[in-house]
Write a structure and sequence with these properties.
- There is one protein chain.
- By secondary structure, this protein is mostly helical.
- It is built from seven helices and no strands.
């Protein structure tokens, strides 16, 4: 028995890049009546969700490495952890400069992200990490302060 697969019917389903180019052209031309609004809204929502996810992922990685640098006594690893800290801070700074409204998400997600980072750090190292974040959690501190000094 053969099952026929229905061909993709919309431009969005057939070729996302071509759909984006077509949508941009329609927007520039003011051809709002012929926009694929349902998929346009979905794509725009996807952008903001992606940015929020990126904030969470980078903040988690930052916290993981700050925890390691502060609590794990392994001088041979300090430089690598600090490089990761600098990288994540730079990327977070760029994201927040590009979309300042994401600062709210940074702060709102901090506790959950800290808990996830702590779980990972505890799996990696058998060290007594504090159950709570012991340092300043404001954005400026998180992006600039070397808490281990």
């Amino acid at each position: 028995m053969t099952i026929a697969i229905a061909p993709k019917s919309t431009l969005y389903e057939r070729d996302l890049n071509l759909w984006v180019e077509d949508t941009i052209a329609k927007l520039k031309a003011g051809d709002f009546q012929n926009l694929d609004m349902e998929n346009l809204i979905e794509e725009i929502e996807g952008v903001t969700n992606s940015d929020k996810q990126q904030i969470e992922n980078r903040l988690q990685r930052l916290i993981e490495h700050i925890l390691k640098r502060c609590y794990v006594s392994s001088p041979d690893y300090y430089r690598g952890w600090q490089v990761t800290i600098v990288n994540q801070r730079q990327k977070l700074t760029r994201l927040l400069r590009q979309s300042p409204s994401l600062k709210r998400h940074f702060l709102e997600s901090f506790d959950e992200v800290f808990d996830n980072a702590l779980k990972i750090a505890r799996i990696e190292y058998d060290v007594e990490f504090s159950d709570t974040w012991q340092f300043s959690r404001d954005i400026d501190s998180m992006l600039n302060v070397d808490f281990w000094e």
